[in-house]
Structure to design on (126 residues):
């Protein structure tokens, strides 16, 4: 099938994200518990464990029929999408940035006005 390379890349990316996430969780947990992360063959045991976990996940996703079918369906549907061209993307991006700046300015002015009103009302001598 034509999407096999794309499917394998997606599974590899999912496995890599899991690997990075688990590694990011293990290191602070080991530090909190004051456990030593031993080295084996020049690699930390926690890193080796997450590499094995990522490889297992990649293998499981690659051989699981429902995961393969779902990924192929997603790739097929994404090929049917009509993506905007560069000019549309640039113009829409400019509009989004402009509206965001306008709203940020409006909220800034609103915040400034209410801060001044609050200062005037709360901190007047009566």
């Amino acid at each position: 099938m034509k999407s096999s390379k794309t499917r394998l890349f997606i599974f590899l990316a999912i496995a890599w994200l899991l690997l990075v996430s688990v590694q990011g969780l293990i290191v602070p947990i080991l530090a909190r518990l004051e456990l030593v992360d031993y080295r084996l063959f020049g690699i930390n045991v926690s890193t080796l464990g997450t590499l094995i976990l990522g490889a297992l996940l990649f293998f499981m996703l690659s051989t699981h029929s429902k995961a393969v079918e779902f990924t192929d369906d997603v790739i097929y549907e994404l090929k049917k999408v009509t993506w905007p061209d560069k000019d549309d993307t640039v113009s829409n991006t400019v509009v989004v940035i402009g509206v965001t700046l306008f709203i940020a300015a409006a909220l800034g002015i609103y915040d400034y006005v209410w801060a001044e009103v609050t200062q005037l009302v709360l901190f007047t001598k009566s």
Notes: Residues 83-126 form one domain. The CA atoms of residues 46 and 68 lie 29 Å apart. The chain has a mean pLDDT of 88. The longest strand covers residues 39-40.
